[in-house]
Amino acid sequence: MSLQSGRARHRLGFIGGGKLAGSVVRGLVRAGFCPASAILVSEPNESTRECLGKDTGIALTAENAEVAARAEVVFIGVKPGVVLQVVEAIAGKIANKLVVSLAAGIRVASMEAKAGGRFMRAMTNTPAAVCQAATAIAPGARTTREDMSAVREIFSSIGFVAEVREDQIDPVTALAGSGPAFIYTVIEALAMGGSHCGLPPEVSLGLAMQTVRGAAQLAIESGLSPEELRQMVVTPGGTTAAGLAEMEKRQTAAGLTAAVEAATARGREMDAG
């Protein structure tokens, strides 16, 4: 499928412009993936619509049907509980179109039962807004190889992309979709530790944020495993060893693992199909 087709007025359309879909839109504009005028978003909330338009310069509407009719690729960015309702309402306008759901829990088969679009799923996260997304894409029964390539191209412009089976999307939702909240909790806890030990709160928070950012960037660029990178910092009997021992005592790592597992289980419960 060519995204350069002149058959549609807009290359990309988003139904929903809230936190996640809005982050993707902001990232695509920031990355220069396509002109802002080539993106059309429907969003019922006026203040959300105005904010997104001010930030990006994209085309906006309050009507889902307008996006479904005028966009070449349609993204469903509404809450999981209303996805099937939205799909059913626009069914007549998305036949044979590529439709990508950003929602957790709702299976492709459930959407395919409501309309004739070429449905697939993409689970991404809010760092998309700064072109640092972690995204996994999964095909549906009608998805073509060209569809997968087109969606990979879109999300590659705003971060890392992996192709997975749909039955792997729930752990992706937990790890990548919910993961930023877990990391913000880690940042907050590190900063609080610094403050408890005498640092001004703003200094402690700044150091914590940059430490997490730097550690992630080194992990990406070095190609080393987390264990190898950890050993580069640890000196027997030193400060890092003392801190890691306390984390082990309090089962910090186990808690983070459990958070991903709990979020995965919740995602599996959300399937309306």
Descriptive account of the structure:
This protein is an alpha/beta fold. It has two domains: 10-170, NAD(P)-binding Rossmann-like Domain (Rossmann fold); 179-269, ProC C-terminal domain-like fold, CATH 1.10.3730.10. 52% of the residues lie in helices and 15% in strands. It has helices at 19-31, 46-56, 64-70, 83-89, 108-112, 145-156, 169-177, 179-196, 201-222, 226-233, 239-249, 252-269; strands at residues 10-15, 39-42, 59-61, 71-76, 98-101, 118-123, 133-138, 159-163. Strand 7, helix 6 and strand 8 (159-163) form a beta-alpha-beta unit. Helix 7 crosses helix 12 (252-269) and helix 8 packs across helix 9. The longest helix has 22 residues, at 201-222. Residues 1-8 have low confidence and may be disordered.
List the helices and strands and how they pair.
Elements: E1 10-15, H1 19-31, E2 39-42, H2 46-56, E3 59-61, H3 64-70, E4 71-76, H4 83-89, E5 98-101, H5 108-112, E6 118-123, E7 133-138, H6 145-156, E8 159-163, H7 169-177, H8 179-196, H9 201-222, H10 226-233, H11 239-249, H12 252-269
Parallel strand pairs: 1-2, 1-4, 2-3, 4-5, 5-6, 7-8
Antiparallel strand pairs: 6-7
Helix pairs in contact: 7-12, 8-9
